[in-house]
Amino acid sequence: MAAGIEVVALDGDDTLWHNEGFFADTQARYCELLAPWASGEAIDAAMLECERRNLELFGYGVKGFMLSMIETAIELTAGKVSAVEIQAILELGKEMIAQPVELIEGVDEVVPSLAETYRLVLVTKGDLFHQESKLARSGLAELFERVEIVAEKDRATYQRILAASGVEPERFVMVGNSVRSDVLPVLELGAKAVHVPYHLTWELEHAEPPAEHDGYWEIDSLHVLPDLLGRLATPG
Amino acid sequence: MAAGIEVVALDGDDTLWHNEGFFADTQARYCELLAPWASGEAIDAAMLECERRNLELFGYGVKGFMLSMIETAIELTAGKVSAVEIQAILELGKEMIAQPVELIEGVDEVVPSLAETYRLVLVTKGDLFHQESKLARSGLAELFERVEIVAEKDRATYQRILAASGVEPERFVMVGNSVRSDVLPVLELGAKAVHVPYHLTWELEHAEPPAEHDGYWEIDSLHVLPDLLGRLATPG
Fold first, then answer.
1. Rounded CA separation B33/B31 (Å)
2. I need a surface site. Which of A132, B55, B100, B193 has the fewest CB within 10 A?
3. Gap from B213 CA to chain A (nearest CA, Å)
4. Does this model's pTM top 0.80?
């Protein structure tokens, strides 16, 4: 058999389990809370600006999101938001953290079947503690040879993961919903990437998919992943 | 030469760089801010209780500390704390995150010298993003063969690290300031541990050191570590 894929790396949030929807729902409830002071549009814009500004201090994840919601509320209300409302924001964030993990359709069949053929690695970013807890609750933890919860998914991160897995780039594929985090830095290294779009993308994750690229595929559902990977053994 | 130590694992916060002091300073300023409502003692007690309660949602690190400060302020003032004061709490936390990394005395000599003889691993907990940034700013990153930023330092975590490093427990030593996190779970696995007390310990990290144990040492300063490790090559 020609050398095919050996290591399949999978993203967590919005690839294996739903995530961005919880952020969007929470932000909608947050907008209702602040409705006396500002329009939903103005709140969303201020929140995005605040998250962008805080990214280099807080990184990704729910705790930073909670802190940015509080900061934005104070800003937008010129300090008039009450402690009771800030308490409500804290509660919104805690509910997100405690939320049960909901696997994306197909994951419970496809991932165990991939694990029979390939070495699986989870590569996800966000709060370390929260991601570990989601993985534990997903029921998928045992299927992964390695779990990499990382601060940023850039070229250096993937380079380190390839080295740690002892795999050649051409035998490594990353599968995820973010072009910016799961596709572009992986292709740069000469590895392969499969984009599985999710119906929601956080604005700070947005990037254009690559045009033509022979190590890149876009699929609608994880259901077709095993077939696609199987075909990669033989070139062309 | 008899089989000695092969892998030296080092804790980060309060072992390589100062940390708890920043938390204590911040909490003192927080107490001043809330002085109109409660005594320092009452604030410290409420804060500890809040952190304990939130630990299973937030894990360790500055972002959880910030959220607990906000929650405690709302509680203790029965919702009367103003948005301006909450903004000040956010600023206190952001200052902590932006704080320059201050190495503990001796680290800049001892750690490079250890790296000449042993494989070094950093094992630290807290916010992933913040810890990575501290490590980068410490100037020590290149000396470590592996960096493990973990959600909890328990037996299972150390078992995973030993396996990933491919080292026998008797040739692995963990060095750190926390008996609870750096010593007890390591000894349980049959590996060795060196306790280097720091002058401050967070109450939720407190544990009694082991009585007699032949794989355990307490030292006053990292300066004596190279000698101690060198002597471990020959039993007795």
1. 5
2. B100
3. 32
4. yes
